[in-house]
Amino acid sequence: MTEEFAWLFRYDDRGDILLEAAHAKRRAGESSAAIGYLDAAIALGGEDRGFARVALADLMFDLGRPLEAEIQFDLLRDELPIYPAPCELAAELHAERGELRSAAEWYSLAIANLLPHEMAELDHADAHLSYANSLLMGRHRCRRALGLAHDDWDNCALLDLTR
C-alpha cells in the first residue's frame, strides 16, 4: 500500500472508505483515480477485495475494456475464501449485461458459499425474505429465462406470496 493510503490503517472500515472514494471519483468522471482507489481496496483483501473487483470490472466494461473486466471476474472466482455478496454483485452485473448463463453461475457460486446459518434461514416462517432466498430467486430467474429445467436449488426458491 502506498503512503497515499497509509492513513487508512487506523480505520477498521478502510475498505469501505476506499470503495466510497472510488465510486465518488467514478461519478466525477475521474476513472484513473477510481481505479487507484479500487486497486488499493483489492490490496486490503477480505470481502472488500471482492466488492472492489466487481466495481473494477463494471468500470472496465464502461471504459470499453471487457477483457480487463473478465480478468477481474476470473480473479474473484479464484480467490479464497469466496464471499457470497461480491458473487451476487457479479451475478447482477452479468444479468444487467444480458449474460444470463454467467449470471446464473455467479448466483450458484454465491449460494454454494453461504454460511450454514444463512441457509438455515430458509427453514423460518419468513424464509422468502432471507438472503439465501434472494440468491436462489435471482438464480432461478436467470435459469428460467434461459429455458433450463428446474434443479434442486430452483425448487428451493420461495416466492413472496404476501405481495
Task: Provide structural commentary.
The protein is mostly helical and 163 residues long. It has two domains: 80 residues, Serine Threonine Protein Phosphatase 5, Tetratricopeptide repeat; 82 residues, no CATH class. The protein is built from nine helices and no strands. Helix 1 packs antiparallel against helix 2. The chain starts with 13 loop residues before the first helix and ends in a 7-residue tail after the last helix. This is Tetratricopeptide repeat-containing protein.
Could you write a compact summary of the structure shown?
The chain has 163 residues and is mainly α. It folds into 2 domains: 1-80, Serine Threonine Protein Phosphatase 5, Tetratricopeptide repeat, CATH 1.25.40; 82-163, no CATH class.
Topology:
Elements: H1 14-27, H2 31-44, H3 46-62, H4 66-78, H5 84-96, H6 100-112, H7 116-120, H8 131-145, H9 152-156
Q: Give the domain tally.
A: 2
Q: Fraction of residues in helices?
A: 55-70%
- Mind describing the biggest β-sheet? none
Radius of gyration: 17 Å
Low-confidence stretches: none
| Arithmetic mean pLDDT | 91
Q: Give me the count of strands.
A: 0
Keywords:
TPR-like_helical_dom_sf; 163 residues; globular; Tetratricopeptide repeat-containing protein; Serine Threonine Protein Phosphatase 5, Tetratricopeptide repeat; mainly alpha
